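[Automated response] Your request has been received and processed.

Submitted sequence:
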Amino acid sequence: MPTQVSATTSFPTETDADTIAIPVFDGEGIAHDFEDGHLGNLVERGEAKTSVGSTAVTHAGDLRFIVYGLGKRDDVDGEKARRAAAAVETRARSLGAVKLAIEIPHHATDEVVEGLTEGVILSTYRWDTRKGADSDRREPVAEVLLSDHDDRSVPVARGVLLATAQNRARDLQNSPPNEMTPDALAARAKEIADSSEHATLETLDRQQLIEAGCGAFAAVAQGTEREPRMIVIKWNPPGTTAEPLALVGKAVTFDSGGISIKPSVGMEGMKFDMSGGAAVLEATAAIIELGVNVPVIAVVGATENLPSGSAMRPSDIVTASDGTTIEIDNTDAEGRLVLADCLVKAKAEGAKRIVDLATRTGAMDIALGPAYAGLFSNNDEWAATLMAASDGSGEPLWRMPLHPSYRKMIDGVYADIRNTASKRVAGASTAAEFLHHFAGDEIPWAHLDIAGVADDVDLPYAKKGGAGFGVRLLVTLAESLAS
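Generated structure:
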């Protein structure tokens, strides 16, 4: 059963929790300590530390107490709260806690309350349903109460919704590629669309992609027997006056590299090449559940990229749905081909601003690692809007450059453009310029290269496997545009 998280105005010791978590800050005593200073003594003796993520355990009567550090009070934000809450949940779980009450720091902002909530839920995530019984494996805490004098049910509820959506994206990411196929993603999209009378779904199969002129997307799917799917969910809330926002996601459910096959070492991680699509789907589900008052066009390009007798080859020339001819230099540069036709589709469906997410380049992973996703944009105001959503959601972005010199590197020899650069430099920027060609400059567009942040990010609340990066970011973005 998933952990139940809710808000309470009862003091932690007045609940029926068996474990109570109390915060401590740099240079401050512990509020509501026992008369004998029992909890504060942990800090004085050095057992309890104030650094974010530290925990110390003690007992008083029938209760177990966890003292958790939050650093400097003025520096606490949503991300520090997420990390601290994950440390508390992990410690409580290791102790066999069943019901945990976490004291919210006095005067904490809604951002911090949401962070505490999200940290707990993200920390409880497991994808081990295929493993046998393990007597050493501790079950997550069954129930968590977030305690404050004031009613904090609104930020707690939002944190529950966003973290649950992020965990659903992690489920999609972590599922094996023989199960998480393009059809499986389309089935999840149908569940999302069916959840509201104001949402619709369109899916295009291989033949329909060909008939629609999506030659770039279709070329990637040539090598696999599984049907590709272009998935389009439209959310049209009644009464909105906001301009439509397009969320576009790359969902290559397994990327072998095709004819330009990848090295065998690490290829098992290529099931995560659908992470952008997973984030778009579950962010869209959360947007619908929240009733965010902005039209959303979610476009997900789902296919495998496999080698076979029918697979695309280096030196092939394909034609995208806007008429652009593309010279295939490397079949492992397939995500940009899928996204090219998805971007054209988003524009055709009436998008007035676009953001796409993709595990695009190893160059981005090398440049930024797991600390940031790379942000490319054709519009400074739109980039600033994305950066604000990044700050609000705690999913960090770093702006990267577009430049005519990068665009020149993808000029084609035998076609309009080529799918890899003529030089092995600026790989992330030249890949972004490829997408820039299809996004154009008339509509604000942003590309998020999430190669380094999609999986195995070693965060306290997301150590191994899919991280669900982008879900909180996209929902926060949509909320900022609502009207």
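Summary generated for your ticket: The first strand starts at residue 4 and ends at 8. The longest helix spans residues 153-174.
If you did not submit this request, please reply to this message.
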